C-alpha cells in the first residue's frame, strides 16, 4: 500500500477530526500518500477527492464536525441521481471504485457508524482493501466497548441534567430530559448516572409509567418536591409502540425517533398534578469540541487504522476492548447492534442506589 484515502460517513460525532488528523499524520510519517474524500461515499462516486498534507489537518484536533464533510444519504450501491427531472436510484459502486483506481488509491479508511460499516463491508467484498473506525455518539456498534463521540455526548447530557436539577428544585417541577441514542440506552444510562437522575428510561427495558409516578410520589413523601427523569429517544412503554416518525425520501425510508419525552411529561403532569417540563437535547449532543477522552480514543483509532494499512491487514474495524486497541472483522459486526444488557454493571449499580429503570 502506497496511497490511502480517508472518508467520514453518517452523522457527525465529536472526535471525527481527531481521527482524520491521526490518520494523515501517521500515514505521512510512514511514507504513505493520503487523499481525503469529501462528503462520505457520495464524494467517492462524484470524485470529490484531494491530496492531504500536514497543513490540511493543522489545528483540527479540538474541532467538532468533520473537515471532510459527511452525509447519511449517499449509498453508492443505491445512489440517488436526477435524470430528465426524475429522481432515480442506481448502483454506482463500480464508478466509485474506478475513481479510486484513477487516483492511484490502494486502500481506504472509513470512519463511520453501522450504515457506513455496511457499505464498507460490501466494498471489501468487491476487493477494496478497507479498514473501519467506529464512530457514533450512540455507542451502539458491536465489537467495541467504546465508539468515539460517546463520551462527549454523555458530558453534554450530564451538563444539561446538572442545569435542569437546579431549575427543577427551585420550581418544584418534574424535569424530563430526552437524549439521543437511537435504539440503545447508553447515553441515557451513563448521563443519568452521572447527572443524578431519579429515573432512567432506556429502550432495552420497556418502561411502566406507574413505576415512574411511584418514584416521583416516593420522593415527595421524603420532602423532595422535584424529580429528574432521563429518557432515551428510543424508549417506549411496556405494551406500547416505539415512538417513531417515518419519513419517506424517494425510495428510502428513514425512521426519526423522538417525541417520547414530551408524551411522558404530559402523562406525569396529568397523573401527579406536578408541573412538568420536557427538554429534548437533540443535536447539541453531537456538536462541538470533543472531550479529552474522545480526542485520545480518536487518535488511537486513527493510528491503529494506518497500522492495519502498513501490515496489509484489511476488512477489519479497529476497536477498544479492555483499554486495548484490537481489530475485529467488519463482516462480524455489520448489521448487528450493541445494547445495554440486563447484566450491565452500571445498570446494576443504578438499581443498587435506587434509580428507577421503569421495569
Ligand atoms: O446515530 C446518531 C444520532 O445522533 C442518533 O442518536 C439520532 O437518533 C440520529 O443520529 C439523528 O439523526 P439525524 O441527524 O439524521 O436527525
Description:
By secondary structure, this protein is of the alpha/beta class. The protein has helices at 16-29, 40-45, 93-102, 114-125, 150-171, 186-194, 209-221, 260-272, 292-311, 330-333, 345-352, and strands at residues 3-8, 33-37, 49-52, 79-83, 86-90, 107-112, 130-134, 174-179, 199-201, 227-232, 244-249, 252-257, 276-280, 316-321, 324-329. The strands form four sheets. It has a seven-stranded mixed beta sheet, with helices on both faces. Strands 9-10-8-13 form a four-stranded parallel beta sheet, with helices on both faces. A hairpin with a 2-residue loop joins strand 11 (244-249) and strand 12 (252-257). Helix 5 packs across helix 6 (186-194). The protein is elongated. It binds 6-O-phosphono-beta-D-fructofuranose. 6-O-phosphono-beta-D-fructofuranose (F6P) is lined by residues 11, 72, 113, 136-138, 180-182, 233, 257, 286.
Q: Give the C-alpha Rg.
A: 22 Å
Count of helical regions: 11
- Global shape: elongated
Number of strands: 15
Element-by-element helix/strand order: EHEHEEEHEHEHEHEHEEEHEHEEHH
Mean pLDDT: 94
Order of strands across the main sheet: 3-2-1-6-7-14-15
N→C terminal distance: 53 Å
Report on the biggest sheet. 7 strands, mixed
Residue fraction in strands:
15-25%
Bound molecules: 6-O-phosphono-beta-D-fructofuranose
Structural class: alpha/beta
Query: Helix coverage percent of residues?
Result: 25-40%
Low-confidence segments = 246-253
Compose a concise summary of this entry.
By secondary structure, the chain is an alpha/beta fold.
